[in-house]
User: Which sequence fits this backbone?
């Protein structure tokens, strides 16, 4: 069987890249790229960033973040963790499931918020969920980006965040720094 005519005009490098792209799953790309700082020279990283920019990746935002004089601690309006924008990443904002009420003999339980099914393990209340969490996103300082539900995604006032306690007439969406003395425990991804 002869290859299609279009493939005959492509270089071996282009064809190799196409095969690589078809055979590499999307979640693997960040893993491969995460090794670049240790394995590539500064010039090679500059070339890689230039190529990613040419392919449409928003490299400029990352470049601006690292050029800031000093990182500012921000407060996530969804999970209420403190973070630095330079370290913000997809899956950084982690919201846990809320099990619906069920009888002691029921082995299956649903999340009240997203409806995903889970299985009770043992008698300690641990649930093994089909999906690890209700929501994983980038952290955000904008309330408009958050869909509050009164269950596991609460406003700063509902959660009792430091800034909301200090300035009760306002919510903490406009405050960049939050005291590390806050007694509210942020949602943490289980180890």
Assistant:
């Amino acid at each position: 069987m002869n290859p299609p005519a279009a493939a005959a005009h492509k270089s071996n490098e282009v064809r190799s890249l196409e095969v690589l792209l078809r055979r590499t799953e999307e979640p693997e790309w960040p893993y491969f790229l995460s090794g670049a700082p240790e394995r590539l020279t500064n010039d090679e990283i500059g070339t890689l960033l230039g190529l990613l920019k040419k392919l449409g990746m928003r490299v400029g935002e990352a470049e601006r973040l690292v050029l800031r004089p000093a990182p500012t601690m921000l407060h996530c309006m969804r999970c209420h963790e403190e973070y630095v924008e330079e370290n913000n990443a997809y899956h950084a904002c982690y919201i846990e499931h809320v099990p619906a009420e069920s009888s002691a003999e029921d082995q299956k339980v649903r999340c009240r918020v997203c409806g995903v099914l889970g299985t009770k393990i043992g008698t300690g209340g641990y649930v093994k969920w089909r999906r690890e969490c209700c929501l994983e996103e980038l952290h955000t300082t904008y309330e408009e980006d958050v869909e509050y539900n009164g269950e596991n995604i609460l406003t700063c006032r509902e959660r009792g965040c430091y800034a909301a306690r200090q300035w009760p007439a306002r919510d903490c969406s406009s405050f960049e720094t939050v005291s590390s003395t806050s007694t509210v425990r942020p949602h943490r991804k289980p180890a």
Summary: The longest strand covers residues 117-121. The radius of gyration is 23 Å. Strands lie at 73-75, 82-84, 93-95, 108-110, 117-121, 126-129, 135-137.
